[in-house]
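Example 3.2
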Amino acid sequence: MPAMERLQKALELTQQRYEAASDGTRGLPPIEAVRALTRVATEAGGYAAQVSDIDVFAIIPSLEPLCPLSPAIERVFKLSLPACRATVAGRYLEALDLYQRAAERVSRAETSGLDEVSRLWSVRALHYAMGCIEGGFGKKHALRHAEQLDKEKSWAITAIAVRCIYYGTLGNQREVERARKLLEMKLLESPVKPVLSAGAAHQYLFIASLSDDLTWLKQLIPEIEAVASIHPTFKTFATFARAEVARVCGDFATGLSIGQEALTQITPGQSPLWAWVVGRSLHCMIGLGRFEEVRDVARRELAIAGAIGLDALKDHIELPLALAESKLGEHASASARLDRMIESRRIKEADGLVLGWTLEERARVALWTGDIAGFEPYAERCGKQYKKSGGNPAVAAKYERLIQEGRHRGLSFSAALPTSISSIGTTRGTLVGGATTRTIASTEVADDLDLPTVIEANPYGQSAARRQKWRLQSAIRHVRESRSARASSSVNVLTDNVWSENVSRDTGAIDRSHGAAHVHRSHRRSL
């Protein structure tokens, strides 16, 4: 019997059973039940994507037999649910393509197969899904999705969440905190709670991991544990956060141990966290000097990543593989891998941390090979991406560690290479044999801080104490540079929480955009 004929017959029999049933035993009429099932399946898929719960898909009945009834059912079955499943697996590019195709169908009332209320709900849900993914790549187009969500009051909170992810991916924690405060206020004020309300806690974790932001990582652990009390799949994210705290502190053995614990809780292809945990565990092994083991493990895990169809996330495994290869003298292979990653992310219009991260390590590999001509353009491009963080001290420190590693090696850089992200576009830096001279507004300041004694040639081998000492000396240097910019109308002054403030030379007014407006006395005494 043809599929459509069989479906019509089934509906006729179901309608007869419905009419024959007593009032107390009846459910929804068959056609209404089909509509409700489709809506519930859509929301369940969205929930699964939000909380990375692959098991949800096992309880969603197949809509395939019902597809001939409506283009809406066919869209949910062929596009929306597979997109949600791809999101849970970490196949973000595949998910984005499916969401875009679904959005194209829903955007036209004549092809959506939905009443107007349901159609608009689907349009906004798809804007939210696409905004989260594009925001996670640092694509500015994510803000357009947020603008569409702002048009409906009940979706305003999800619009803020999209902006949080986008600015976080740029590394701009100041904008993230502003958006999160607004989000908290909206949650308190609004009687309408947001749809898909699990939030973007895991996205914040990924951002904090990329920026090596120790403070944010520590703050996220209790937040994620609170989410995990409602959504158990987040327990593994909390474990990963603790592993990242250890890694950023330089305790690679503990970071690796906790990372291995997290790997026992997840399966490849069933959580976006898998590639992150594998990659960061490999970074810990690099910090421990286990380069040959990293190469062998990474190649094996990279094969698994290919088998389960990972796209952008497989870079988290391939990047430490490239670093290990370079450490083992396989520089050509390492450089080629990183170049492919950079070009792939450029084509995808990735921005901020997700692009700067690959550029940083490509510059580092060039440094390890003594290729200064190759180092400078990658370092400069990395600095431009990290500059988009808006002065995030954790991101600034990543760039400055890269430059200081070159200083430690006694290399000579051209005057065009900025030595800190705060100087990009305004400052020229010259690094010759370990001594730095910066030209700021025509005033030269010699930096005689003995940073080579603080930084190690291997950036992964710094202890927490050495990192703290380096950050303090870096802070002192920034304050000295600011005080030395006599010809400039304004300077940047370091504040308690390391964010910058604008101080007018003419009026002495201070724009307190973030944090307290003073320099520690200990810093003043050391100047």
